[in-house]
Every structure is written in C-alpha cells, then in structure tokens.
Write a structure and sequence with these properties.
Strand content: 35-45%
Radius of gyration: 28 Å
Number of helices: 0
Strand order of the largest sheet: 9-10-13-12-11-14
Distance between the termini: 44 Å
Mean pLDDT: 94
Number of strands: 39
Oligomer: single chain
Length: 514
Amino acid sequence: MPNAALIQNAVNAGELSPLLLGRQDIDKYVRGLFVCKNAIPLTQGGWTRRPGSVYLHQAKFHNKACRLFPFQFSITQTYVLEFGENYIRFFTNHGILTQAAQNVTGVTQATTGVLTYDGADTYANGDRVYLSGFTGGMTQLNGREVVVTNVNAGANTFELYDSDGNAIDTTDYDAYSAGGTAAEIYQVATTFLEADLADIRIVQSADTLFILHPDFPPQTLVRNSALSWTLSEITFTDGPYLATNTTSTTLTPSAATGSGVTLTASATTGINGGQGFLTTDVGRLIRIREGSAWGYVLITGHTSTTVVTVTVLNTLTNANAKATWRLGLWSDTTGFPSCGTFYDDRLFLAGAATAPQRLDGSKTGLYTDFSPSATDGTVAADNAVAFTLNADDVNAIKWLVSAEKGLLAGTSRGEWQMRPSTQNEAITPTNITGKPATRHGSADVAPVSSGKAVLFVQRAARKLREMAYVFEADGFKAPDMTLLAEHITRPAMVELAYQEQPQAIIWAVRSDGV
C-alpha cells in the first residue's frame, strides 16, 4: 500500500507537547511541529532559522553569575547593564563602555607581556583595560580584556594578566611595531554579591534607574553623561510608616531640632514586636506628633533597646514625651521593597519582608517622598498612598505593573487589580481599592508587557500566563500560553525578556541554564 503524503500549509503553531500526539481534533495540531529547534515559526505560517548571535565581550568573571538589564535613555542612546558581584558595567553601540583610549607604544614578547602606553592617565593594579587597534604586530591582543598588574606608573607600563589571574604569554605573538590603544573599562562599584543578583528588580524613570532588592535599601543609578553614572542609596524625604502607636510607650527627644539628638523610649512595648530598638534600625525613620503637628527623625545610632541617636529632619516642636509616633516601614530590621512600578505619576513599591501584602505609592511627582500627610496632619489627594491587600491568606506581592485598567500586582496566591472607585479618577490616599483579578499565583519572576497584556510566570514557574482585560467579561483573564507546549519550560523559568522586532518573542531563561 503506498504511503500517504499530507500537505502541511503552515507551521506557526510551533512545537507541540508529546502529550498531543494523535490529537488531530485540535485545530493547532495540523499547524504544529514535533520538534522545532533553533528555529522560529513565523506568524504568516512559515518557518525560519533562529537569528545568529554576535560575541560582544566577556563578562567580568567567567566563574560567577551576572545579570543583564536594559536602560533606554533615548531612542538613540540605549544601554545594556551588566550587574555582577560588586560592579555594574555598561554596553552600548555593540561594545563595552570605556574611558578615553590611550595610545600603546610597545608590548614585549615575554612569558608575561609588558605593555607601555603614552597618555596622561595612569592605571592602578586591578583595573580592567580593553585593548584594540593593533595593526603592526601583537594583533592577537585586539579585542582582549586584560587585568592591569604590577603597574610602573613612572614608566607608564603594566603587566598583562587575563581575567583568571594568569599571566598572558606574548612570546609567540607577532612583534609589536605600530598601533594599539588601551582603554579602561568603565564600571560602577556596588555592594551586591553574586548570591544577591537574582532578587534585583529595576524601575526606570528618564535618566534614573531605581534598583530594588529585599535585603538592601533602594538605590538609584543616575546617568549624568555617557561616562558619568552615579549610584547612591535613596534618602526618602518622609515615610512610609507603620501604623500609629497604640501602646502606652512614649518617645522623648533630648532636643526638638538638630543632629546627635537622643531619643528615649519609656519601654520596649510596641517597638519591633516588644524587642525595642535594634542595631538594624539605624537608617530608619520615625514620625512623631506633638499636638496636631508631626515631625520626623532619622535614626543614626543605637545605644540600647530604649535609646537611639537621631537627626531631626523636621522639627519636633518641643522635647516633651510623646505618645503618638510611627516607625518607618522599611529598614534592615523590617526589610525593603522587592518590586515596584510607576503609576499615575507615583512610584509604587511593595514586597517588604514584614509587610508582604502592602504597597506604597509616593507623593504625586515626588518619587522619594512618601509623606502620609502634611505636618499638620492634613491628608491631601497628592499625599502618599498606603494599601494592604485584603486577603484571607498571605498574598506576598511578587511584582507590580502599570496597566490601562489599573495597577496590577502579582502575588503568591493570585493577581490583583488596584484602581480608584471610577476609571476617570486618580488613585489617592482615600480613593483606592484592590480586588482579585485572577487566582493563579505568581512566581518571583519579573513579568513582561506586550501591548495591553502582561505576561507572568505562574507560581510553580512552569506556566507562562497572559493577563489581559476582556471586555465581554468586564475583567481580567490569564490563559496558559504554554498549554500546548508544557514541556519546553521544564524544569522552571527564572527570567523573562521581551523582543518587539522583527518578531514579537518572549525569551525565557530556565533554571537549567537553557
């Protein structure tokens, strides 16, 4: 009996799960593939080989993990930021960002090559330098990153070592005769270790990148110019705060203004669950009221469980004992926000360890000011917003996304929508509500947006769901985008990235490195 040859007019259903073998009754079956490797199915129905890749540069450490984040300053100035252990490096225009190049005047042929340069800038041991432009000999050094070692500043020389700490043997390289430049690789120092990188989240506003991590105070990375970036810890003007003290504990300042002020608590009750002040409270805000006037202070030193040193940021009126006070929400004691987004010209932050269901929005247009009210207690529409998800169980917030129909939050037990009472209003301290939108639960993976949809990883990190508003249902739905190809995400997804052109593709990094 002759074999039958079936015509397959399209393959744009992509690779289908082995669980679907024989399911001719499914529409996508006739457009699916058993294996689709190193290829991309096209929306029009065809199939094309996946695009190739270009080697741009090595990561700083080959034996330590790093992460890449986008930074778009303008349409013509975009960067990829390499976050690694204790550093950030920058890529732009298909290359790594470097300081001004200096001319090379010689390189020895030796078991440890020695480079001589002619320039006003001096290098220090440990600097990373990018070599290029060799035309007469030593062309083997072109495109190499070397570690400056055994500097002789007076002679403008240093020995060449690779990133693993091994001397670069130039004995068999072509003898140097002309050309070559050495440019120090630009980087910014950080306190993040390799183990911290997975929990970093970013939010960008113009030339400022907000960097969030549950174990570190929020930081900003500001682009001052192409070769000037400033990383600093955010100094919040005021707030956010925990609930107002309801115990009999009072706080007594030694002065109403100034720095080095001693603040004494009458008891430990109501402070850190009865533990009193802790060393990890240094850097924490406290809001204190005298009569109808609020003042606030910053803890700068710890003496005991009842005594701390503070700097008064806003006058405390007098040095009397005060029973009305609020401890700052974020600190080394309570944790820091782990995710955030911009919505209604506010910076919303959420996910602190001791307040996992709470989100806080800054004052309108003032992204580092979380004042819950004016100092006289008046709450205006542009004051900071504080909202806690009203759920029966713990819904730790994993991500925040700004959407057309409101502020969306992904939690460990479901996805929520926060919005004002009506769509033509703005969220204010007294006009915000939150309701469950879907009940799938989210993994601790930053989502991506495509058009009006938000794509997030479900709690078990195996399913990718597309959350979008459905007019007919007057609500959100989040269908499983991996339903027909559940096998491709095994063992788990740990990171997502979205590509808009030339094909709209979501790339995922799996926990096995694929």
